[in-house]
Amino acid sequence: xxxxxxxxxxxxxxxxxxxxxxxxxxxxxxxxxxxxxxxxxxxxxxxxxxxxxxxxxxxxxxxxxxxxxxxxxxxxxxxxxxxxxxxxxxxxxxxxxxxxxxxxxxxxxxxxxxxxxxxxxxxxxxxxxxxxxxxxxxxxxxxxxxxxxxxxxxxxxxxxxxxxxxxxxxxxxxxxxxxxxxxxxxxxxxxxxxxxxxxxxxxxxxxxxxxxxxxxxxxxxxxxxxxxxxxxxxxxxxxxxxxxxxxxxxxxxxxxxxxxxxxxxxxxxxxxxxxxxxxxxxxxxxxxxxxxxxxxxxxxxxxxxxxxxx
Length: 310
Fold this sequence. Notes:
Layout: E1 12-16, E2 37-38, E3 41-42, H1 43-53, E4 58-63, H2 68-73, H3 78-87, H4 90-101, E5 104-109, H5 116-121, H6 124-127, E6 132-135, E7 139-141, H7 147-158, E8 161-167, E9 177-186, E10 193-201, E11 212-220, H8 224-229, H9 241-250, E12 255-259, E13 264-266, H10 270-283, H11 288-300
Parallel strand pairs: 1-4, 1-6, 4-5, 8-12
Antiparallel strand pairs: 2-3, 6-11, 7-13, 8-11, 9-10, 10-12
Helix pairs in contact: 3-4
Enzyme class: transferase
Family: Belongs to the UDPGP type 2 family.
Protein name: UTP--glucose-1-phosphate uridylyltransferase
């Protein structure tokens, strides 16, 4: 049994799901963006499964108005299960139960949409004084890539905060939060790990400190809540988590960045969402053998952009 002075393992995850999903209107007028299917499972289910694989068995979803369907999805459905059982359809019963059995899922309302930092602050009572992970629903990390596990290991060893980074190139950095880093501090079997010395939200390319962008995985200490409370509204009039993390850096709290080099599926806009569906479907054992050849044939028949019709 661990003594009180020893760090406790991180077991809690926070998933903000209060956004309106305006990029996917009109579909998201009635269906939360997080429940849009990526092949045959909602994007949100992939995220919860990732947390559970990393040992985070308690998951808090920070919701908003018109998100009741998310609570329903992670609840039991006795009528549906009974109907499937009557048909002897055990495979679909198992599929239905996956979402309810994967983790303990809790819910809290954000109340007002004041930004990601404000959404994370709603988890303070749930988290207490423990480190915790934040997973954003637009990024699906392939189950074969142990990004979150590596981030938890770095936080357990060095404390402070750990953020996931992706080299998006100078031409794309203005879409993201960018970081300044110093030499590699932690070496291991996984991705590169840097000490973060500064960060800025969506800088012009010429002013970006690097091409390393913050993507939607964080492991945070409980001190981040005080930093968020002390953070005034920033870009867009919202309380930015990036600004609170910068305050941690300025206060001397160690912040590390893990540069992810694995497979990531972006479901944040319509084009990337379509790419994610295709990539994941091709990888599936039950769909890939038929879908792959069809896709190759379909692509072969596509007209080349700018070419004259035959």
